[in-house]
């Protein structure tokens, strides 16, 4: 399968079910950073115990291995990317694929080892691991840090691609943050699941309380999709 090809149906559907069971994926009315009223909300901060984050790391590992992506190390951008990158590195090592891991601080440390990078030295092709991509800001900051260290930003792994238009200066644009990172910054982006996968799950789920959300999610996708 190509790195930027369609998400694996089985992995994506299992992940959507897992996110619902964990309370990470919810339906209702939620205001996004862009000021949109979204019929669903994905809060990765609620992967909040050892069992949940271990299983989440397993989904990342499944997708990375399936994609065939080759890389040399993992980088977790502060803050949510730090535990994600660490647990994904641990899960891949458990599967016999051991990679160096590093992360950044928001503010440089003036004592001890100093600087704003922690962990293995940044070198080679670097995989960035984060939860979602709203504006691509964290990715751009990560790219700058990786390049400053003389390494190569290579790809980004995320949990969910919302597949919706990004905003610039408060105005909708015709591309999503993921499309911007792929097409303008030249990095592969590997999501565990996408909004289309969520719609597929809702279409195929017999539970009336879930199926009822499909039309609202589809209308949102139609209006804001990229």
TrEMBL record:
<feature type="binding site" description="in other chain">
    <location>
        <begin position="79"/>
        <end position="80"/>
    </location>
    <ligand>
        <name>5-phospho-alpha-D-ribose 1-diphosphate</name>
    </ligand>
</feature>
<dbReference type="InterPro" id="IPR023031">
    <property type="entry name" value="OPRT"/>
</dbReference>
<dbReference type="GO" id="GO:0004588">
    <property type="term" value="F:orotate phosphoribosyltransferase activity"/>
</dbReference>
<dbReference type="GO" id="GO:0044205">
    <property type="term" value="P:'de novo' UMP biosynthetic process"/>
</dbReference>
<feature type="binding site">
    <location>
        <position position="162"/>
    </location>
    <ligand>
        <name>orotate</name>
    </ligand>
</feature>
<protein>
    <recommendedName>
        <fullName>Orotate phosphoribosyltransferase</fullName>
        <ecNumber>2.4.2.10</ecNumber>
    </recommendedName>
</protein>
<feature type="binding site">
    <location>
        <position position="134"/>
    </location>
    <ligand>
        <name>orotate</name>
    </ligand>
</feature>
<dbReference type="InterPro" id="IPR029057">
    <property type="entry name" value="PRTase-like"/>
</dbReference>
<comment type="pathway">
    <text>Pyrimidine metabolism; UMP biosynthesis via de novo pathway; UMP from orotate: step 1/2.</text>
</comment>
<dbReference type="Pfam" id="PF00156">
    <property type="entry name" value="Pribosyltran"/>
</dbReference>
<dbReference type="GO" id="GO:0005737">
    <property type="term" value="C:cytoplasm"/>
</dbReference>
<feature type="binding site" description="in other chain">
    <location>
        <begin position="130"/>
        <end position="138"/>
    </location>
    <ligand>
        <name>5-phospho-alpha-D-ribose 1-diphosphate</name>
    </ligand>
</feature>
<feature type="binding site" description="in other chain">
    <location>
        <position position="106"/>
    </location>
    <ligand>
        <name>5-phospho-alpha-D-ribose 1-diphosphate</name>
    </ligand>
</feature>
<comment type="function">
    <text>Catalyzes the transfer of a ribosyl phosphate group from 5-phosphoribose 1-diphosphate to orotate, leading to the formation of orotidine monophosphate (OMP).</text>
</comment>
<dbReference type="InterPro" id="IPR000836">
    <property type="entry name" value="PRTase_dom"/>
</dbReference>
<keyword id="KW-0808">Transferase</keyword>
<feature type="binding site">
    <location>
        <position position="105"/>
    </location>
    <ligand>
        <name>5-phospho-alpha-D-ribose 1-diphosphate</name>
    </ligand>
</feature>
<feature type="binding site">
    <location>
        <position position="109"/>
    </location>
    <ligand>
        <name>5-phospho-alpha-D-ribose 1-diphosphate</name>
    </ligand>
</feature>
<comment type="subunit">
    <text>Homodimer.</text>
</comment>
<feature type="binding site" description="in other chain">
    <location>
        <position position="33"/>
    </location>
    <ligand>
        <name>5-phospho-alpha-D-ribose 1-diphosphate</name>
    </ligand>
</feature>
<comment type="similarity">
    <text>Belongs to the purine/pyrimidine phosphoribosyltransferase family. PyrE subfamily.</text>
</comment>
<feature type="binding site">
    <location>
        <begin position="41"/>
        <end position="42"/>
    </location>
    <ligand>
        <name>orotate</name>
    </ligand>
</feature>
<keyword id="KW-0460">Magnesium</keyword>
<keyword id="KW-0328">Glycosyltransferase</keyword>
<keyword id="KW-0665">Pyrimidine biosynthesis</keyword>
<dbReference type="GO" id="GO:0046132">
    <property type="term" value="P:pyrimidine ribonucleoside biosynthetic process"/>
</dbReference>
<dbReference type="InterPro" id="IPR004467">
    <property type="entry name" value="Or_phspho_trans_dom"/>
</dbReference>
<dbReference type="GO" id="GO:0006207">
    <property type="term" value="P:'de novo' pyrimidine nucleobase biosynthetic process"/>
</dbReference>
<feature type="domain" description="Phosphoribosyltransferase">
    <location>
        <begin position="49"/>
        <end position="166"/>
    </location>
</feature>
<feature type="binding site">
    <location>
        <position position="111"/>
    </location>
    <ligand>
        <name>5-phospho-alpha-D-ribose 1-diphosphate</name>
    </ligand>
</feature>
<dbReference type="GO" id="GO:0000287">
    <property type="term" value="F:magnesium ion binding"/>
</dbReference>
């Amino acid at each position: 399968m190509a790195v930027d090809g369609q998400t694996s149906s089985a992995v994506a559907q299992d992940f959507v079910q897992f996110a619902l069971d964990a309370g990470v994926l919810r339906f209702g009315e939620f205001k996004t950073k862009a000021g949109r009223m979204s019929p669903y909300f994905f809060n990765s901060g609620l992967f909040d115990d050892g069992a949940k984050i271990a299983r989440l790391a397993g989904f990342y590992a499944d997708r990375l291995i399936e994609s065939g992506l080759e890389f040399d190390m993992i980088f977790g951008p502060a803050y949510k990317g730090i535990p994600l990158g660490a647990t994904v590195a641990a899960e891949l090592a458990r599967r016999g694929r051991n990679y160096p891991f590093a992360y950044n601080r928001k503010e440089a440390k003036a004592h001890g080892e100093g600087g704003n990078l922690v962990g293995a030295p940044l070198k080679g092709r670097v995989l960035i691991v984060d939860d979602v991509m709203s504006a691509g800001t964290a990715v751009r900051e990560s790219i700058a840090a990786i390049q400053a260290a003389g390494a190569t930003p290579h790809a980004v792994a995320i949990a969910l691609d919302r597949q919706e238009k990004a905003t610039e200066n408060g105005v909708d644009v015709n591309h999503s943050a993921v499309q911007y990172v792929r097409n303008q910054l030249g990095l592969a982006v590997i999501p565990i699941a996408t909004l289309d996968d969520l719609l597929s799950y809702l279409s195929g789920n017999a539970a009336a309380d879930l199926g009822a959300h499909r039309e609202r999610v589809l209308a949102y996708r139609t209006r804001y999709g990229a």
